[in-house]
């Protein structure tokens, strides 16, 4: 790569494009030899049901405490596969680059993608790169699609929560959202809050091995946070969920930053957490499994399925009151006084 | 020292609730307290406080959400300014979703207007400095809490000799509007839970004329659950003793005389004026406008065409803002009017009474 920034020509399909792919993108992401490059990746068919998912990443800023758009794009898609109870196998990477992006930044992002993929034991097998004019995208957008295999017969689905199920969260709420917010211009918030961006497939695999069919629902509470995800599950399963505010794991710094900015950690995004609905007898065992993994060390039982009233989520407040939990109407906007 | 967990301590809450119950046990009547400030409304709903209180204590919500009381004409004016070429609207977050007569800032943004949410008015001044070719309009809403910050931003703009920074001013003030509510014969208020942050600026003494003239107990109260319960306990004790004093529960922040430096800046830039409150109407002397020497920063001097104001007839925001009606009394609540598609301002703001009821009521 001669240029130190990405030029429009790097997306032209001509020599510059090949240079970008052969000198930077392919060596970092896959290492596939030119003689093996084709229009499609040809892959072996696995034994079992397939899980297939896609997600696009447009985070601002590209780099934040605890991660960047690259590893986020791997973790997010790996986690979506894991939430179906699948073992991640293959992933694609689509890059939409705004001209002018420093090559150094792109390199750092690609390297963290590869590292995240290796850690998650998923292979980057296909990809695409486009470059658009300045102002037509915001530096870099990434799409990843993933395929995984489900090697068991358990039904892990949003409509499978059952009366009496315990609700587990695998760790502290709101770390990702607050880390990104704190890295944003205009928020002068000095903090050591780091994004929780991480792959959860290893922890899910252990959960499946230990508790098996007693896991009824798995979902990662990303945008909209734990509150929104619980509400989705309550609607899908036609149940009432009651959670206990006193049991919610929230890091002191995140709780404090949320209080200052007028945000509710229940609605702040996570990128390395899961919610699990588990039969009551297996809940403690599952909690033990989570605690053995670094990304699950703060896991807690936060509530249970308390009724069949469709689509209701209630929160017992720390002071003993009771209130409803609803989805957010728009973005979580800051208060003005 | 931490400032959150201690103020949610369930044991202390239990103690305060017992004290409140004991305080009103021998009291035959009922008492109605108004929390004026939107942040109190949210705290009360968020922690489920209303249901924990004895039946003889009612809490009603007042007009202290700045977004809710901003008149529709102001939104229309901001929309008109947003449509102006080379103009950037800077605002606190909640304002973008408030419906005007036919549009909102959010809709204008989707149509291409440049609207930016800032956390501090000083960010808007920096933007004006960085983009001299653009006109920067800051939407100056809020009570005495935000007014000094905006006054400070204006003084900074003046110091930097910026000619492209403007404020569209719709500030309101607290004690004057609280007095206006007490003059309403339909409204029974036995005590005021006085706002926390406003009082940090104006000081607890600012409520003394109110307490004396209207014989109404006033307790300046913090926002955490223990604060609110202690404030209610103090009010109930005053009511039972037949007193009408100003007390400060939130003494860790609020001083009797307030923040004198902030008051000085506020008075340097603003002067009192009559103000229109959405849903309530005109209250003489309840607003702040720019002093004549700062007229050059007034966004009202920018030429734009503003559409005639139109408000949904069924909306009872006014009655709700005065504490006369609950959100559930409104025929539009939860049907036509939802947080996703709000009709009245009480549903838009994160601190609005209707939004709180919608979000938290079981």
Attribute tags:
heterodimer; A: 337 residues; alpha+beta; 60s Ribosomal Protein L30, Chain: A; Phosphoribosyl-aminoimidazole Synthetase, Chain A, domain 2; 2 domains; seven-stranded mixed sheet; four-stranded mixed sheet; 8 helices; 13 strands; 30% helix; 24% strand; B: 362 residues; alpha/beta; Rossmann fold; six-stranded mixed sheet; five-stranded parallel sheet; 14 helices; 19% strand; globular
Could you outline the blueprint of secondary structure elements for this entry?
The complex is a heterodimer of chains A (337) and B (362).
Chain A lengths: L14 H15 L19 E9 L5 E2 L2 E2 H14 L4 E12 L4 H18 L2 E10 L7 E11 L15 E4 L5 H9 L17 H11 L3 E5 L5 H13 L2 E5 L7 H10 L13 E4 L4 H10 L7 E8 L4 E5 L5 E3 L13
Parallel strand pairs in A: 4-5, 9-12
Antiparallel strand pairs in A: 1-6, 2-3, 4-6, 7-10, 7-11, 8-10, 9-11, 12-13
Helix pairs in contact in A: 1-3, 2-3, 5-8
Chain B lengths: L9 H16 L5 E7 H9 L10 E8 L7 H11 L4 E5 L13 H6 L3 E4 L3 H10 L4 E8 L4 H13 L5 E8 L1 H9 L8 E4 L1 H7 L5 H7 L3 E3 L4 H17 L4 E3 L11 H10 E8 L3 E10 L26 H5 L23 H4 L4 H8 L2
Parallel strand pairs in B: 1-2, 1-7, 3-4, 3-5, 5-6, 7-8, 8-9
Antiparallel strand pairs in B: 6-11, 10-11
């Amino acid at each position: 790569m001669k240029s130190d920034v990405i030029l429009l020509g790097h997306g032209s399909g001509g020599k510059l494009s090949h240079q970008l792919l052969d000198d930077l993108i392919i060596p970092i992401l896959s290492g596939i030899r030119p003689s093996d490059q084709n229009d499609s990746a040809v892959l072996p068919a696995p034994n079992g049901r397939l899980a297939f998912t896609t997600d696009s990443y447009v985070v601002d800023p590209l780099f934040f405490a605890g991660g960047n758009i690259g590893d986020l794009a791997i973790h997010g898609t790996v986690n979506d596969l894991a939430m179906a109870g699948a073992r991640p196998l293959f992933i694609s990477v689509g890059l939409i680059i705004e001209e002018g992006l420093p090559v150094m930044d792109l390199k750092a992002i690609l390297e963290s993608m590869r590292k995240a993929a290796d850690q998650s034991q998923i292979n980057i097998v296909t990809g695409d790169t486009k470059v658009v004019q300045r102002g037509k995208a915001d530096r870099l957008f990434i799409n990843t699609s993933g395929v995984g295999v489900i090697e068991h017969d358990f039904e892990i689905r949003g409509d499978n929560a059952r009366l009496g199920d315990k609700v587990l969260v695998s760790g502290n709420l709101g770390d990702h959202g607050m880390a990104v917010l704190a890295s944003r211009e205009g928020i002068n918030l000095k903090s050591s809050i780091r994004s929780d961006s991480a792959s959860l497939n290893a922890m899910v695999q252990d959960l499946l091995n230990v508790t098996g069919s007693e896991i009824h629902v798995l979902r990662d509470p990303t945008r909209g946070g734990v509150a929104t995800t619980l509400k989705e599950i309550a609607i899908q399963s036609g149940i009432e969920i009651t959670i206990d505010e006193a049991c919610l794991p929230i890091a002191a710094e995140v709780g404090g930053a949320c209080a200052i900015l007028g945000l509710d950690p229940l609605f702040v995004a996570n990128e390395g957490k899961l919610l699990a609905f588990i039969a009551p007898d297996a809940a403690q065992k599952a909690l033990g499994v989570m605690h053995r993994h670094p990304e699950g060390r703060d896991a807690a039982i936060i509530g249970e399925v308390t009724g069949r009233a469709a689509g209701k989520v209630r929160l017992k407040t720390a002071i003993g009151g009771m209130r409803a939990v609803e989805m957010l109407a728009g973005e979580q906007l800051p208060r003005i006084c | 020292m931490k400032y959150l967990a201690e103020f949610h301590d369930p044991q202390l809450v239990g103690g305060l609730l017992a004290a409140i119950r004991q305080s009103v046990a021998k009291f035959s009547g009922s008492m109605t307290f108004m929390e004026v400030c939107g942040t109190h409304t949210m705290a009360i709903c968020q922690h489920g406080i209303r249901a924990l209180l004895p039946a003889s204590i009612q809490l009603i919500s007042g007009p202290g959400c700045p977004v809710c009381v901003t008149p529709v004409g102001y939104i229309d004016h901001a929309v008109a300014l947003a449509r102006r070429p080379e103009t950037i609207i800077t605002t606190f977050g909640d304002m973008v979703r408030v419906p005007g007569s036919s549009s909102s800032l959010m809709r204008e943004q989707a149509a291409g207007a440049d609207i930016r949410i800032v956390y501090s008015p000083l960010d808007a001044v920096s933007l004006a400095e960085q983009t001299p070719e653009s006109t920067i309009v800051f939407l100056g809403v809020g009570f005495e809490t935000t007014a000094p910050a905006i006054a400070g931003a204006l003084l900074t703009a003046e110091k930097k000799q910026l000619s492209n920074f403007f404020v569209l001013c719709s500030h309101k003030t607290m004690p004057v509007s609280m007095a206006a509510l007490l003059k309403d014969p339909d409204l029974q208020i036995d005590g005021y839970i006085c706002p926390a942050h406003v009082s940090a600026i104006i000081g607890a003494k600012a409520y003394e004329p109110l307490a004396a003239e209207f014989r109404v107990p006033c307790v300046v109260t913090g926002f955490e659950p223990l604060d609110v319960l202690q404030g209610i306990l103090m009010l109930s004790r005053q009511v039972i003793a037949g007193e009408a004093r100003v007390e400060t529960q939130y003494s860790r922040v609020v001083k009797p005389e307030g923040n004198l430096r902030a008051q000085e800046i506020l008075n340097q830039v603003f002067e009192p004026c009559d103000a229109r409150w959405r849903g309530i109407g005109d209250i003489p002397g309840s607003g702040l406008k720019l002093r004549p020497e700062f007229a050059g920063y007034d966004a009202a001097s920018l030429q734009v065409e503003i559409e005639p104001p139109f408000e949904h007839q069924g909306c009872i925001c006014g009655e709700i803002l005065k504490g006369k009606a609950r959100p559930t009394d409104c025929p539009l609540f939860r049907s036509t009017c939802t947080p996703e598609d709000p009709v009245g301002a009480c549903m838009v703001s994160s601190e609005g009474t209707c939004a709180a009821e919608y979000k938290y009521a079981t």
